[in-house]
Write a structure and sequence with these properties.
19% helix, alpha+beta, elongated, 158 residues, 3 helices, Thiol Ester Dehydrase, Chain A, homodimer
Chain lengths: 158, 158
């Protein structure tokens, strides 16, 4: 990619994300035990994320993924789905994050994002704020992560 | 560590986390550009996390850390501080997450956690739920991440 010939923008501008629209992403590849342990060692070294023996006496009875790991997988799946694409200018905030069920080795995650609101940004009139409800489930359709998200997107033509 | 001689528990039980208590963690080492890009490539491949050239035309004017990266650094600093330690049984949820200011290469982050509430768990009477307000600032005391957290901790003697 050279400065002379920028690639065309991918994804959708703010105006596309009208309340009620639903997007799906995933499923992920099965999450490997090694991947869970590596993430835990890097960022969240609780025994039930990094130590298969130590995890047995936790309330989970075995290794589970860090909640941060689950959130990262969710973000990655949504970005790979590409709905926001190059129009995305960043997350403003997230609310009501819950991890109602553990993520265990071998799980495959899928994500559903429903637009719940949209408004032009007051501080950045070239952008809009998209509100959404994001639900992540495992291969058995059990919900493992829910959150509400507020994201900044470029407007059409900007 | 053998099954015959488990190491003693570190950290503090639920009863220690009374409302009003304040804990501090950090500062982190300076966050390297390479580290920001590596995290972005793995989990949040927006141009303003992974591409120094592409980041220039974003609203940030340059590379910034993924909000997930900032959250991970916050969790790691808190875990290294060790207040919860082995009594920690997992995060239940998080609320009101805001990233009011970008994290840029070279920033050093520090965390303050204030206990705002505590109650015995209804579903797990051997545990308690600790509510807290967590604030992460950079080296200039500018707030880069705020959240409210609900965490499950073992009770004394359990």
């Amino acid at each position: 990619m050279s400065a002379d010939s920028p690639r065309p923008r991918v994804g959708h501008p703010f105006e596309y994300f009208t309340p009620g629209r639903v997007f799906r992403a995933g499923p992920s590849a099965p999450i490997a035990l090694d991947e869970i342990v590596a993430f835990g060692r890097a960022w969240d070294p609780q025994r039930f994320h990094v130590d298969p023996e130590g995890a047995k006496d936790s309330i989970y009875g075995g290794i589970i993924a860090s909640g941060m790991h689950t959130m990262c997988i969710m973000f990655k799946l949504l970005e790979l789905a590409g709905e926001f694409g190059d129009y995305f200018e960043g997350g403003l905030g997230a609310d009501k994050i819950k991890w109602p069920h553990p993520v265990r080795p071998g799980d495959r995650l899928s994500v559903t994002m429903e637009v719940t609101g949209a408004r032009v940004s007051r501080s950045r009139p070239d952008c809009g704020v998209v509100l959404s409800r994001v639900t992540t489930v495992n291969q058995d359709s059990v919900t493992v992560l829910t959150m509400e998200s507020a994201d900044l997107l470029r407007r059409k033509g900007d």
